[in-house]
Amino acid sequence: MTKSEFEQRAAEMRARNLAARTRQAPPPPVTAISIGPAWAPTKQRIRVKEALAAVDFSDLDPALKAVRRVGTIETDRDGLIDLRGTGVQIAVSPELIVRGVVLCNAVLKGATKRGWMVKAGAPPGAYLRVSITGEQLDFIVEEKVEPIPDLRAAPGGRRPRRPTGNLQVTLGSGYHKVSVSDKRGTRIESKLETLFEVGEALAISIRAERERLAAQQREYATAERRRWEIESRIRRLNENMDAWEKAERIRRYANALADEASSRGPIEPESDLAKWLAWAERYADWTDPLTRPLEVKPQEFWD
């Protein structure tokens, strides 16, 4: 191969390598990873006393007066003002705090008018409750919250939520609850009569359930007493039978021993054998339940 041919071959190889590199796909553009929407509830410090300045507390239920003494409070992770530290269960966004307090007052006044008892709890840990025909029900005014779209929670965590602007009033005890809420443009204030009716129905239902459980518990206790009494009766019977049979065996043995001794000669009254036979007879009488006054203890169940 001549020098010119070698240079031509090298030029062709360089051209092919350059063409192959240009045909390779370009790397994908770097895109930013979104971690959620720009909006999320941020904690705010709210001056509750100033927010409620327009509310005339002199006309409100006495149980709500503790709310007036609240100074500055920080919203929770859902953007709500939680006033439960005052003993009054109100949890609403800052924009609805006035409506929440006024609504709570309307429910309390309506409850009092219907003969319900309102019991203010002493914080911390004791909340405002209403008593309907003797049934104690928790009472809370709260704003509904909803998960923030497209914002995911960490594994095992709770999705961030935001206020919806809709209030809800809940009465309940444990798992037994009823509530009314803002829906389709209709506010709770126009549905308070419904709340009172379902609240009374709930109280009746809770009382009936408690009475059913109490009756069930009484039946169980009666069955337990019956079982214990029968077992005790059987145990006493077996013990008396064993004692009676033991006394009879002692007597038979003592008589057999006396007969055997008499066959060999008279038994002297002051002999050790005579004393032993007298003792055996006394012991048999002491063991035998038939030698004692017949005692049958009164029983609750004789069947």
Q: What's the gist of this structure?
A:
This protein has helices spanning 3-23, 48-51, 65-68, 97-113, 192-262, 272-287, and strands spanning 45-47, 72-74, 81-82, 90-92, 117-119, 129-132, 135-147, 161-173, 176-181.
* Beta-strand residue percentage: 15-25%
Number of helices: 6
Q: The biggest beta sheet, please?
A: 7 strands, mixed
Q: How much helix is in the residues?
A: 40-55%
Cα Rg? 45 Å
Order of helices and strands: HEHHEEEHEEEEEHH
Structural class: alpha+beta
Q: What number is the mean pLDDT?
A: 84
Low-confidence stretches: 30-38
Number of strands: 9
Report the end-to-end length measured between terminal Cα atoms: 125 Å
**Which geometry do the CA atoms define?**
flat
Observed structural traits:
single chain, 303 residues, alpha+beta, seven-stranded mixed sheet, two-stranded antiparallel ribbon, 6 helices, 44% helix
Can you tell me about this structure?
It is a single chain. The chain has 303 residues and is α+β, with helices and mostly antiparallel strands. It has a domain at 45-149 and 158-186. 44% of the residues lie in helices and 17% in strands. The protein is built from six helices and nine strands, in the order αβααβββαβββββαα. It has helices spanning 3-23, 48-51, 65-68, 97-113, 192-262, 272-287, and strands at residues 45-47, 72-74, 81-82, 90-92, 117-119, 129-132, 135-147, 161-173, 176-181. Strands 3, 4, 5, 6, 7, 8 and 9 form a seven-stranded mixed beta sheet that branches. A two-stranded antiparallel sheet has the order 1-2. A hairpin with a 2-residue loop joins strand 8 (161-173) and strand 9 (176-181). Helix 5 packs antiparallel against helix 6 (272-287). The longest helix has 71 residues, at 192-262. It is flat. The N and C termini lie far apart (125 Å). Mean pLDDT is 84; it is low at 30-38.
